[in-house]
């Protein structure tokens, strides 16, 4: 059995998540990268891709379950999936602000909860 650390990174289709996944894989970790749409995913060497939308509780639970079935545990969770909203508060709609919090705050909480609850 491998002693490699099991690392889960959300949002590896681009940006910080993708770069982080590459880095952990190069260091010899067992890396699972989550992606919203697996059909559009570009493979990353040494990274197993798992479909997950962090705004969808059932999707998060299914994704974490899939990882746990394969790796049995998670050592490191990197919450990188997120959206960016730039603009003055008075120019931002409540719907836009809610999307930001649903993704960047509650989405992160959901993946952390699932990661610790499903054992
Ligand atoms: N880059 C910076 O300098 C910087 C600085 C401070 C904070 N941040 C924050 O850090 C986060 C990541 O930044 P980034 O530059 O890496 O952004 P990015 O390149 O836009 O990557 C965001 C990632 O999150 C995924 N994502 C978005 N909504 C999702 C959802 N509901 N479920 C699952 N995955 C979802 C995206 O997937 P899709 O391809 O499916 O959309 C993408 O893989 C953002 O919240 C950003 O605001 C970034």
How would you describe what is shown here?
With 119 residues, the protein is of the alpha/beta class. 43% of the residues lie in helices and 15% in strands. It is built from 3 helices and 4 strands; from the N terminus they run βαββαβα. Strands 3-2-1-4 form a 4-stranded parallel sheet, sandwiched between helices. Helix 1 links the parallel strand 1 and strand 2. Helix 2 runs parallel beside helix 3. The longest helix has 24 residues. The model has no long low-confidence stretch (mean pLDDT 93).
Any descriptors?
119 residues, alpha/beta, 4-stranded parallel β-sheet, 4 strands, 15% strand, binds NADP nicotinamide-adenine-dinucleotide phosphate
Summarize the structure.
By secondary structure, the chain is of the alpha/beta class. Helix content is 43%, strand content 15%. It is globular and about 55 Å long.
